[in-house]
Amino acid sequence: MGLFDKLSNFLGLKKKEVKVLVVGLNNSGKSTIINHLKSDDEKSTEIVPTIGLSVEKFKNQKVYFTALDMSGQGRYRDLWEHYYKECEGIIFVIDSSDRLRLAVAKEELDMLIQHPDVAGRFVPLLFFANKMDLRDALSSVKVAAALGLEKLQDKPWHICSSNAVTGEGLQEGVHWFTQQVCESMR
Amino acid sequence: MAFKRDKKEEEDGGGNIFQNLEKTSVLQEARTFNDTPVNPRKCTHILTKILYLLNQGEQLGSTEATEVFFAVTKLFQSKDVVLRRMVYLGIKELSSLAEDVIIVTSSLTKDMTGREDLYRAAAIRALCSITDVTMLQSIERYMKQAIVDRNSAVSSAALVSSLHLTKVAGEVVKRWVNEAQEAANSDSIMVQYHALGVLYHIRKSDRLAVTKLVAKFKSGRMSLKSPFAICLVIRIVSKLLEEAGGEWAESPLFDFVESCLRHKSETVIYEAAHAIVNMKNTTQRELAPAVSVLQLFCTSPKPTLRFAAVRTLNKVAMSHPAALMACNCDLESLITDSNRSIATLAITTLLKTGAESSVDRLMKQISSFVCEISDEFKIVVVQAIRALCLKFPRKHSVLMNFLSTMLRDEGGLEYKASIADTVITIIEENPDAKETGLAHLCEFIEDCEHTSLAVRILHLLGKEGPKTKQPSRYIRFIYNRVILEKAVVRGAAVAAMAQFGAACPDLLPNILVLLARCQMDSDDEVRDRATYYHTILQCRDTLIANHYIIDTLQVSLPILEKALYQYLQNPSPIPFDLKSIPPPSAVADDHVAASNKIAAEGSISSTAPKLSKPQREENYYATKLNNIPEIANLNGPLFCSSEPVQLTESETEYVVRCIKHCFPHHLVLQFECLNTLNDQLLENVWVQLEPSEGYEVVHSIPCPRLQYGESASTYIILRFPDQLSATIGNFGATLKFVVKDCDQTTGLPDTEEGYDDEYMLEDVEVSLSDQIQKVSKANFGAAWEEAAGYCEMEDMYSLASMSSLEEAVANVTAFLGMQPAERSDKVPQGKSAHTLFLSGFFRGGQQVLVRAKLALADAVTMQLTVRSTDQRVAELITSTVG
């Protein structure tokens, strides 16, 4: 690292870049959330099911995020693990109206946490209990209970209910996430 | 670090900095891709290394490739343009090696629909390389949009990618036809060309649609700006015209091609001229404009145009010599062209078309620089000389001398083979040139490094040498081979010497001495041959010598091999019967036809691969029939198979061809049926036959299922009548089947129940030639004498319908299906009488020899003498001729 880099780092001027992984079951709203977080001129008008992954960028409080928006379809979920190693934060999106598949989401989460590339590391986890506007949606507390988040102790985590279409609840979650990430980088 | 090493390598003087790359170290470096933030310069360099390795043929294992591939996917986060484009290339190269490549589908679709034009075309190409049939559905919409995109690079990329996708998912691509149509109207010439390619590819199996497509472009409803697109249309049109056969002369399609001769682009003009000149059955009037265009090109200042024109003229020189006369003057001026390739082609073209008087001059011209041109062009020269020899037999001495000088020069096998071929053809066609030709060949084998050629020439010497005036002079050349060459050549030399011994009685004592010496050879094969020939020749019995040396075993070798193998597998007390093996299908006939064809086309120099074809075909049927138990159980192997005969018109609902397989006592009729109706499924297809008297239907094997576009066979096994004269007849035939209507797209039947239907076929004709196998006899006279003891039949015929001897010879040969011996099928010009010798085997292995003395008065009169081992066969032949 050059002298200039050191200096700018010390002064906090350096552009902070963070790589995050966005995972969750299919149709939970991952791409919609990322699309909402992007700046206005980069937003796309329609969201189609992701195949494989899509690399997106957005900015929050002077921190530049590179989001790897992964496909949630069953047959592509085993591709997630290729990207665990380098990520500095994970956003896990849950469709809170889909009670039936909450168990599936829990299983995927457990596998993620136990993966050797994630287990021993300090990785902030942000949960979005998405689609809160739907009538039979569960509250964030119930979702947290269903996923067994209380047992998760070695990593900072936060859950908030959200509505990706209107953007409700997203800012709160991302705000927390940015702070955690900045802390871990210091 | 990497930089330092590169620098050092540069100092070493190696121009290629990638020369000493190690796969493992590069893969190690590829881990840099995972770093955040991405260093574009470094990553681009590493990607280049990976691509270099892959292009050098380095193999990556599936795990290695997958690991690199996933590392590459992480580079999508960089916005560096150069790096991104390298990433696309990397994805394309790795797509076939790595697993789970669909991971980048969304990333690529995003780039392909994004705002950055630099990414879009490359993203499409990469996307199509990672997509398989199942995934294609999800990107179909984007592809359709991309095809009609305003950006020509994007549109072109999408079109070319679709063309590649037709290989894996033709059905899906067919749905994009409207978009491709729209793209064909594009202003960009590149897009237009690619769109036309896709359109043609989608429709190429449907002739009507192709015609419509062409008509649309032709009529100007779709304007073609791209010269390449027009060239493509010309190619499509000439293919259509070729398929249409002869009746196109007045066709609007042809007019279109002709109108292209007046196009402003040189490429199009050349393509049109090339197409017209290469069409079959063109008349002088149609050719003239094309040839005059080529003539114009000959004087063009651009070497490429001159080369193209002269090359095309050279190719068609043989088929349209008259049309080319007009160009002679321009070709003359090209002889001294500074470009050697153009000069060579000009000279050879002139040799093909020119007059006899100019031959000497041209030969002198070409010999001045023949050593400077490449082998490929030397072969062109040799072929021109071959054509010339056939045309002007009197010039053989000049040409022969030239060829022998060429033989002495350095050159590859193909080149030498083509010269030897030419010399051999000249020897065979022109008796005057025989002695000089053989002398040149003798000289050539003195110093020949190509074993296969030496063996061929020795064989030829053995055959032709004894018939010359002074056979003894060749013995020295042949025996020299025994002393100097390797085993294969020695063996051939021994066999050639034996031929002399058998054919020239006055040389026999000397030959015996030489053969006795060969018995001491170090090689088994050579020793065996020498001993074999020595023993036979020592008997001094011309009959035995004739039988075992000049006309050796007359059996089809592949079938003999198979039969012997089977005999050894199931040993039986009955000794192996050589008679049960059918004789080889006469190859000499095909050989001549093939070599004539070669002379005309001027492309192939070695005839060896051609020769094996008929035998392979025979073998092919034998294996196929053996898979059918009813046929395999017939006693005796397959004797011969006829050429397929059409029993229907070619454009009807059902196309049926009949192949007649002749067994010793049975006749198997194979009906090859093709269903051309896409809304019908045929089941239980069989042929109802009304055999002529004496025939007995033993078995009929129906074909259970015949789908649209498929061809399948049904068989009928018949027993030949005991009375041989009853074997010739006409059988009425009707195709019977159950029809099930079915869905056009899926081919699945709509209903379970079908209905019976039938279809009239033309009569199946069983003739004499179906039962006779051609056999070539090298020494017919001896065989004829030998057959004096067989039964003989003789009769006189008047062949009123024939007006010339050539016609009579061709007809008699075709009717009997026998092989003309000793070139007696060639009638010398200006003679009024000719004798034709034919030989063959009747089914069951009865030898048949025929001598036909023909005389021409007002009509042709023929005295036919048949000698056969079987009285009944001879009777049959004399009774059916006429």
TrEMBL record, chain A:
Full protein name: ADP-ribosylation factor-like protein 6
Main localization category: membrane
Cellular component terms per the entry's GO annotation: axoneme; ciliary membrane
Membrane recorded as keyword: yes
Species whose genome carries this gene: Laodelphax striatellus (Small brown planthopper)
Record flagged with keyword Disulfide bond: no
Binding sites annotated in the UniProt record for Mg(2+): S31, T50
Gene3D superfamilies the record matches: P-loop containing nucleotide triphosphate hydrolases
NCBIfam families in UniProt: small_GTP (TIGR00231)
Binding site for GTP: G24, L25, N26, N27, S28, G29, K30, S31, G72, N130, K131, M132, D133
Subcellular location: Cell projection, Cilium membrane; Cytoplasm, Cytoskeleton, Cilium axoneme; Cytoplasm, Cytoskeleton, Cilium basal body
GO biological process entries: cell projection organization; establishment of localization in cell; vesicle-mediated transport
Entry keywords, A to Z: Cell membrane, Cell projection, Cilium biogenesis/degradation, Cytoplasm, Cytoskeleton, GTP-binding, Lipoprotein, Magnesium, Membrane, Metal-binding, Myristate, Nucleotide-binding
Membrane topology: Peripheral membrane protein
Highest taxon above the source species: Eukaryota
InterPro entries tied to this protein: Arl6, P-loop_NTPase, Small_GTP-bd, Small_GTPase_ARF, Small_GTPase_ARF/SAR
GO molecular function, one term: GTPase activity
Family: Belongs to the small GTPase superfamily. Arf family.
PANTHER family: ADP RIBOSYLATION FACTOR-RELATED
UniProtKB/TrEMBL annotation, chain B:
Topology relative to the membrane: Peripheral membrane protein
GO molecular function terms noted in the UniProt entry: structural molecule activity
Domain of life assignment: Eukaryota
One Pfam family this sequence matches: COP-gamma_platf
Domain Coatomer gamma subunit appendage Ig-like subdomain span(s) in chain numbering: 621-767
Ranges of residues in domain Coatomer subunit gamma C-terminal: 769-881
Ranges where the Clathrin/coatomer adaptor adaptin-like N-terminal domain occurs: 23-538
Subcellular location: Cytoplasm; Golgi apparatus membrane; Cytoplasmic vesicle, COPI-coated vesicle membrane
Protein name: Coatomer subunit gamma
Record organism: Laodelphax striatellus
